């Protein structure tokens, strides 16, 4: 049973002042719960160890995919294969951050990997900022949470320059390189999240800029803002798979920019390997004895309750939960039906006394660095709620 502590909600005007304008869902309900999940120190440590171990496994699995040319199995668009290889081969293409979605981990339930949102993970602002603000608003000790996301991201931005050296040596290596941050105009959540990342990079010591994606200029000489200022790094809150399918010419141009060493793109192209749910099958093949993995296959599993997902599905869309006899128990519609399906053994999410289900999200930036929860029904969709936590 998930243990909860009721707290006073942050008022909407306070959330607006923080830039958190997506605080109310389309049905008029509050997106951020006025409760906190109580997590023990031992449970937080177990989440930390699980995410770190899983990331190492993903790195080994990505190497295996590249060496064995398994891009088709993972649904990788052909026009991104070369950029993936190039970004994987050179350490300067640094993975800034991602988010592991996990079942279990509280009240004695074993931790199980659901998927890894490695390219454009949501929930960053909620996990990094709102949890802290919620505890402070209620007079609670802000330090009593598993949440050093801001500092971990700051240090990881510095690692763009220092790589595997001490990130605190950033100023010894930094030579004025600039990062341009971009999101699509008209999406408040993505814009605020991108600007939060820009602020962290600025605090890390970088010169930074912001430009909506449609105003960024690309050519063989690099990446430029609307004033034609060049940038050595470009962070885009826009999925690689969408670039490949919706902007194929841009995919080719970005590959050329990378090959010509005119700019470095964040998150790197190789994070699309991590993003693909097909990696869940590769992980099972490579690490059959891992306690964190659920049996996963490209074909329906025999005789077990299972979840059908799509390779690049998001927010629970195009998902089915099927009983052991193949009958559909729950399903959602969505825009990802053209992607290849895969099948993952079902595991129940932890529940509270009202039957709500909870999925843990662990942010990763060089190491596991923060925890937040999503609350909803059997399939967590875009109407699920964010629930903060407190160490108890």
UniProtKB/TrEMBL annotation:
Domain Glutathionylspermidine synthase pre-ATP-grasp-like: 13-390
Origin: domain of life: Bacteria
Swiss-Prot/TrEMBL keywords: ATP-binding, Ligase, Magnesium, Metal-binding, Nucleotide-binding
Entry protein name: Glutathionylspermidine synthase family protein
Gene source species: Sulfurimonas diazotrophicus
């Amino acid at each position: 049973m998930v243990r909860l502590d009721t707290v006073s909600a942050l008022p909407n005007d306070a959330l607006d002042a923080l830039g958190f304008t997506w605080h109310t869902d389309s049905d008029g309900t509050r997106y951020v719960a006025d409760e906190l999940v109580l997590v023990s120190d031992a449970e937080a440590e177990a989440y930390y160890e699980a995410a770190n171990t899983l990331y190492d496994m993903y790195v080994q699995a990505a190497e295996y995919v590249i060496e064995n040319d398994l891009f088709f199995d993972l649904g990788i668009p052909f026009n991104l294969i070369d950029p993936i290889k190039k970004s994987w081969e050179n350490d300067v293409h640094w993975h800034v951050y991602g988010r592991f979605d996990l079942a279990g981990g509280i009240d004695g339930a074993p931790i199980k990997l659901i998927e890894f949102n490695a390219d454009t993970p949501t929930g960053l602002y909620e996990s990094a900022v709102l949890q802290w603000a919620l505890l402070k608003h209620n007079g609670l000790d802000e330090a009593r949470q598993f949440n050093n996301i801001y500092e971990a991201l700051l240090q990881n931005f510095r690692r763009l320059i220092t790589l595997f050296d001490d990130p605190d040596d950033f100023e010894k290596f930094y030579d004025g390189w600039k990062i341009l941050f971009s999101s699509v105009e008209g999406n408040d959540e993505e814009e605020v999240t991108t600007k939060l990342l820009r602020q962290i990079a600025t605090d890390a010591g970088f010169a930074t800029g912001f430009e909506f994606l449609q105003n960024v200029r690309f050519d063989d000489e690099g990446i430029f803002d609307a004033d034609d200022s060049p940038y050595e790094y470009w962070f885009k809150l826009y999925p690689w798979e969408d670039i490949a399918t919706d902007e194929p010419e841009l995919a080719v141009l970005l590959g050329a920019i990378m090959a010509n060493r005119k700019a470095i793109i964040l998150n790197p192209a190789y994070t699309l390997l991590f993003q693909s749910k097909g990696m869940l099958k590769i992980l099972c093949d490579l690490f059959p004895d891992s306690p964190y993995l659920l049996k996963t296959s490209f074909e329906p599993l025999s005789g077990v309750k299972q979840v059908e997902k799509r390779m690049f599905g998001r927010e629970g869309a195009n998902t089915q939960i099927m009983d052991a006899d193949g009958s559909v128990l729950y399903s959602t519609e969505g825009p990802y039906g053209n992607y290849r399906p895969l099948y993952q053994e079902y595991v129940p999410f932890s529940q509270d006394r009202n039957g709500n289900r909870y999925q843990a999200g662990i942010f990763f930036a060089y190491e596991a660095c923060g925890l937040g929860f999503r609350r909803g029904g059997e399939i967590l969709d875009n109407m699920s709620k964010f629930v903060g936590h407190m160490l108890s």
